Amino acid sequence: MKRFLDLLYIFLSFPLTFFILILLTITVLINMGRPVFYTQMRPGKNGKIFNVIKFRSMTNKKDSNGVICLDKERLTKFGNFLRSTSLDELPSLWNVFKGEMSIVGPRPLLQQYLPLYSKRQARRHEIKPGVTGWAQINGRNAISWDEKLELDIWYVDNQSTWLDMKILCLTLKTVIMRNGISSNSHVTMDLFKGNHER
Q: Which residue in 110, 56, 109, 106 sits closest to 81, CA to CA?
């Protein structure tokens, strides 16, 4: 049922999302040049690795030594707009179409975090990752890692069609209000460093 609804949502929203994707592709190309999309290996269901796709929001700016600059120096004004509205996530619908992701689920995090999760936290990989999720409407990047991962686990244990519909509706509200975009110290979220509970 969840897979059917994912495809149904994509089909019903296709005219609007296709127009927005074309518009944003042109705008990213004008503002930042090529490549338009950013791909990165992320763990999905059962830790299976796949390439998540997003709109690029940062430049490849380097310092005088050729070292890549910090995120805050590479994030453009337009890139910040993409992130604050979550429009950079729209290309991930292709991952949903391919069956690698779902519309709703725990966000796919960095591959390097896999060995850092406690046994409980690793349960977030029992289901497909999502374009949006329970953690994204309950603080997003403004909450701690422990809180975020606990919200992911709560969703794994309580997922339902009605909950997914609620999350989708609240996601629209969160995007419009631009809540929880950044943590206090980073442009996005502090790196996850694991914990002592294994």
A: 56
